[in-house]
Design goal:
Number of domains: 3
Strand content: 25-35%
Strand order of the largest sheet: 2-1-3-4-9-8-7-5-6
Number of strands: 18
Radius of gyration: 26 Å
Structural class: alpha/beta
Oligomer: single chain
CATH class of the largest domain: Alpha Beta
Helix content: 25-40%
CATH superfamily of the largest domain: HUPs
Shape: globular
Distance between the termini: 46 Å
Length: about 525
């Protein structure tokens, strides 16, 4: 049962990945597929159930996305959400019309049939999240209404003879107070999920798959950056292949304080894989000398990394595979799944075109996982929490946090300031409560007074954000006392800095990083 997925049909909902994550939280494996996937392909994928997502269109408009009507003939459990409800009802004989007034935000749902499996254990009146301008006005002869809201007379339905349910609200968002119960009811009581999608089971299956994929006389090269994705990828491969995994950690001179030693120790203590540390500081700092444009920095760093990594990979006897820490959102957004949504939001390749350049095969053991699942997997594999819960760090490293010219002296100032900020966040117990936090060295100086003397020194900016998906972000409301302590320590302990500022810009209009 664990290998049989729940297929989520993507009709353009902003919440489609959230639906998948919520399904997986209930122990069922979710895959996001195109809205127009054929009924025959659905049968081949052998799912335990289907979920039709919401979407921005109106089902009665010309060109509105539709599903293959044949999916309703497969006798599979189906849950339509918002647009998915309207499409299911319209396809099976109901009528959809614009609402007299659009319904957005929290509203009270009144459950008329609490005996229905979908609403088992749900209160007779509960808060749900609505976001729609259309609604089902006539359910047709085949559906039975299950719930209402003050402005939506048909807020949930069940088909009389088929395992088809539909709801106008969004159970996947946290604003729906008992949404997880409703999803769990659909998965467990309707689809018959056994809840066996766990990281422990994933490890077992993936180790078997990797061991069967890589021939016994061949090796896998894995680029280790110090981030959670590459560390978990390497640890999983090492469990499957042992010392046939060679991890390459490139010290580009743009790392955080003591990062090279920390990564080498953390990985060395928990893996049988070979670790090669390449000291390329001179190469990177040389190519960045005098460069201030952020895009030019990124281009030069990328080219230099590829040259060095390629040279190292080709020196490894028996190396035929290149591992990447590609995650499921990357696969979806790059159009990398043949059954997934077709639109390419972004091109994704962790190491550019290296597999083709090197003549290596590509292996991506994390491509079915979301970020939160990767963290759970890391703990399952025994990686230390300092690696598993580490905040994201940009590929170009401190080069995009030292604004302006990159020099050893400026990098040293930023490393110390960043270490103080993160140290105090940890001490306050707030590191895990923030999504990303770091310091930035600004390309300006300011006047200050220290002791009885005038100073004219560097300025440090500190930034901390809250976000679930990194597409949007809000600045962290850190305690004033913590900010004061961080500022005082930075100015007192780091010669050359006399001012600290806190970035309170949201994304958008700003970005999380400064460059």
């Amino acid at each position: 049962m664990a290998d049989r997925p729940v297929l989520i049909f993507d009709f353009g909902s902003q919440y489609v990945q959230l639906i998948a994550r919520r399904v997986r939280e209930q122990g069922a494996f979710a895959r996001i597929v195109r809205h127009d996937i054929t009924a025959e392909r659905v049968r081949e994928l052998n799912p335990i159930g289907l979920i039709l997502s919401g979407g921005p269109s109106s089902v009665y408009e010309p060109g509105a996305p539709k599903c293959d009507p044949g999916i309703f003939e497969l006798d599979l459990p189906i849950l339509g959400i918002c647009y998915g409800m309207q499409l299911a009802c319209q396809t099976l004989g109901g009528a959809v019309q614009p609402c007299p007034s659009a319904e957005y935000g929290r509203t009270e749902l009144f459950v008329a049939d609490r005996e229905s499996p979908l609403f088992a254990g749900v209160d007779a009146a509960t808060t749900v999240w609505m976001s729609h301008g259309d609604q089902v006005r006539e359910v047709g002869p085949e559906f039975v209404p299950l719930a209402t809201t003050p402005s939506c007379p048909v807020a949930a339905v069940k088909h009389k003879s088929r395992p088809v349910y539909a709801i106008q609200f969004h159970p996947e968002v946290s604003h729906t107070s008992q949404g997880s119960t409703i999803l769990a009811n659909f998965l467990n009581k309707v689809c018959g999920s056994d809840g066996s999608w766990t990281m422990a089971k994933f490890v077992e299956r993936e180790i078997e798959r990797v061991a069967a994929t890589v021939p016994a006389d061949e090796k896998v090269v894995c680029g280790l950056s110090g981030g959670v994705d590459s560390a978990v990828c390497a640890a999983l491969l090492a469990k499957a292949l042992g010392d046939r995994v060679v991890c390459v950690f490139v010290d580009n001179g743009l790392l955080r304080l003591e990062e090279r030693d920390q990564v080498a120790k953390a990985f060395g203590d928990s893996s049988k894989a070979e670790l090669r540390v390449v000291d390329a500081r001179a190469d990177f700092l040389g190519t960045l000398a005098g460069i201030t444009d952020p895009q030019e920095k990124r281009i030069r760093i990328g080219h230099t990394f590829i040259d060095i990594f390629k040279r190292e990979a080709l020196s490894i006897p028996g190396a035929k595979w290149l591992a990447q820490g590609t995650l499921y959102p990357d696969v979806i957004e790059s159009g990398g799944d043949p059954d997934g949504p077709a639109a390419t939001i972004k091109h994704h390749h962790n190491v550019g075109g290296l597999p083709a350049e090197l003549g290596f095969e590509l292996i991506e053991p994390l491509r079915d996982l979301f970020k939160d699942e990767v963290r759970r997997l890391g703990l399952e594999l025994g990686l230390p929490e300092s690696i598993v819960w580490r905040h994201p760090f940009p590929g170009p490293g401190l080069a995009v946090r030292v604004l302006g010219e990159i020099t050893e002296d400026r990098l040293a100032l930023l490393r110390k300031a960043d270490a103080i900020f993160l140290e105090e966040l940890h001490a306050a117990g707030l590191y895990r409560q923030t999504a990303q936090a770091f310091a930035v060295l600004l390309p300006i100086k300011s006047v200050g007074v220290m002791g009885d003397g005038r100073t004219y020194d560097q300025v440090i900016g500190i930034r901390s954000v809250q976000t679930d998906d990194f597409m949007t972000a809000d600045w962290s409301r850190l305690p004033y006392d913590l900010l004061a302590k961080v500022s005082t320590r930075i100015v007192n302990e780091i010669k050359g800095i006399n001012r600290v500022v806190y970035d309170i810009t949201t994304k958008p209009p700003g970005t999380i990083e400064w460059e």
